[in-house]
Specification:
- There is one protein chain.
- By secondary structure, the chain is an alpha+beta fold.
- The protein is 19% helix and 38% strand.
- It has six helices and 18 strands.
- The protein has helices at 33-43, 76-88, 131-141, 168-172, 194-197, 221-233, and strands spanning 2-11, 20-25, 48-52, 61-66, 71-72, 98-102, 105-112, 115-119, 150-153, 160-164, 185-191, 203-209, 214-217, 240-245, 253-260, 263-268, 270-281, 284-292.
- The protein has an 18-stranded mixed beta sheet that branches.
- Helix 2 (76-88) crosses helix 6.
- The chain is globular.
Amino acid sequence: MTDFHFQQIDVFSSEPTKGNPVAVVLGADALTTQQMSAFANWTNLSETAFLLRPTTPEADYRVRIFTPRTELPFAGHPTLGSCHAWLAAGGQPRGDTIIQECGAGLVPVRSSDGLLAFAAPPLLRSGPVEPPLLERIAKGLKIPVSSIRASAWTDNGPGWLSVMLGSRQEVLALEPDYAALSELSLGVIGPWDPILDGTQAQFEVRAFAMGCGVNEDPVTGSLNAGLAQWLIGAGLAPEHYIASQGTCLGRAGRVHVASENETVWIGGRTTTLIEGMLRSLFGKSRVSISAHEIGAHGDEDHGL
């Protein structure tokens, strides 16, 4: 029997249960790809991460990230959740910046103002969305094409493409036809109006991740990274802003964006809500939660 330490972490919210949960299995080197995939399917979370020994001396740890049906080279909230779990388990970075190894290469993670933040990886695909695809997106979102103010490929691994609408209210009002958008990973963003919406955030984001097996993701680091690179580069957003996400799902996600020296950093708060053990016996896995602490760590932010 092999036991694996397990944490479930709420990412991108200062309010426990109001962010995006990620399951993290630590010291998972003995698990096969099939076992990782099966466990990720069972958790049915948008992503499950497995911490492993790095294969390069530059990295502090390695992570593999799975959705319920596929493996991703990179994803944002699993990056912050994995770093949080690694630090909480006693991980000691070699330098001031933690270096994560994943399918997208080496990703720096830092602590700043009580937040963990990752450096956005380079986009694998950028540029405007093709007109026929844009028409399909508008039809799937049930809006006229003219409502889309701007569009771009923002793919840093999960296949994101994104559109910008005119306001937060337009974003929140969307009731997509998910079948019409099948196999796409679509981000939608719109600006907050300071008078109507307040000043807690500057943009509202929604992530429709049918291509990853999730109709709508609560709070999405990889998407926000791609959005920030696109919008800041195009002069459509300031170099520092906060994005709100998950509103339609009853969440209160807050993604902190900062562009510094041509690097975009994506940050958020992280809180452990569940700790336990994953036990694997002769290749058959079961989960035993030895401690279930919803909200017990509400005052604990591992922005180390």
